[in-house]
Amino acid sequence: MTDFAFVSNVDAGISRNISQRGFNFTRYNFRDLRCALSNGHSFTSVFDDGSLSIEDLKSLSQKCDKLYVPDFFRFSELTRSGAQVKLFHHWVDEDFFYYKKKSSFSFDCFCYESINEELLRLLRRRFNVFVCGKGLTDGTKCSLLQRSKIYCHSEEGDLIGKEIFEAGGCGKMVLCNEIPSKDGMDMFFEDSVHLVNYENIEDCLKKIDLYLEDEYTRGEIGEGIYNQIRKLHTSRKRAKEIIRDFTK
Predict the structure, then answer these.
(1) Which has the closest alpha carbon to 178: 162, 201, 155?
(2) Are strands 24-27 and 3-7 parallel, antiparallel or unpaired?
(3) DSSP, res 147
(4) What sign has the CA pseudo-torsion 136, 138, 144, 148?
(5) Spatial separation of the C-alpha atoms in residues 178 and 194, rounded to whole Å
(6) What residue ranges define each of the domains in the chain, with the CATH number in brackets?
């Protein structure tokens, strides 16, 4: 059996789907991963959640068959350096997020405390917003998303954040800022079909006002991203991609 090393949290879906197909994987922090490699352990692939530096990834690329990274910027940098790297976006566990539970709305918006500080201040002033911190179970987080009308996302990096997939998996309309690799985002989610992009804070607030009033369009966009994720971005789909790469 061959090891796949994940430098990230591995949900039950990835665990279940890879194990059912007879493969091993291990969750490491980078220090433990380096220790395992220095002791002669080899890995077919290493999956990073965005926490490793370019230099760390270049070092790992010499010791494993393939690296997987979730962000466009580091993918481009590593490709230019000659590393064997693949863009591998986030996913959600279909056995948890994919159910349509009817629930009444308690919040206008759901966002994370890591969102842009100025945007968060204005959201709190103008809307009934739930601000998600650390330590929530997936079940609680899913329940709170279900009770929110809009998920508001602010991304500082050049990637499609895991939180977008989670909110979309709950059927929420996702409102997010444009990332530098907008063309890359368009390969996964179409603006105004699967989610809605905003250009700046003022544009974000205007669009929240608009879609809070427009229940029909909000529901259509939430349904669009839900169907897109269920078709292309489940843990089952990602596990198949991992194993297909290995067995080529």
Answers:
(1) 155
(2) parallel
(3) T
(4) positive
(5) 14
(6) 3-91+234-247 (3.40.50.10090), 94-232 (3.40.50.2000)
The CA distance from 150 to 161, in Å, is 16
Q: Is 243 exposed, middle or buried (0-12, 13-18, 19+ CB in 10 A)?
A: middle
Q: Is 240 exposed, middle or buried (0-12, 13-18, 19+ CB in 10 A)?
A: middle
DSSP 8-state class, residue 234: B
d(CA 120, CA 128): 12
Q: Give the other-Cβ count within 10 Å of 234's Cβ.
A: 22
Give the orientation angle of helix 54-61 with respect to helix 30-38, to 10 degrees: 30
CA 208 to chain centre: 22
- Identify any residues that bridge with 5 across adjacent strands, giving them in sequence order: 26, 46
**Whether the predicted pLDDT of 247 surpasses 60:** yes
Integer Cα distance of 69 and 50 in angstroms: 7
Residue 48 forms beta bridges with which residues? Answer: 7
- List pLDDT tens digits, range 140-199: 888 899 999 999 999 988 999 999 999 999 999 999 999 999 888 998 999 999 999 999
Q: What are phi and psi of 212, to 5 degrees?
A: -65, -35
Question: Cα separations (Å) of 58 from 2, 27, 75, 158?
Answer: 22, 20, 11, 19
Instruction: Burial-class residue 10 by CB neighbours within 10 Å (0-12, 13-18, 19+).
Output: middle
The pair of structure tokens assigned to 54 is 């370019």
C-alpha distances in angstroms, 24 versus 4, 11, 21? 6, 14, 9
Q: pTM, whole model, 2 decimals?
A: 0.90
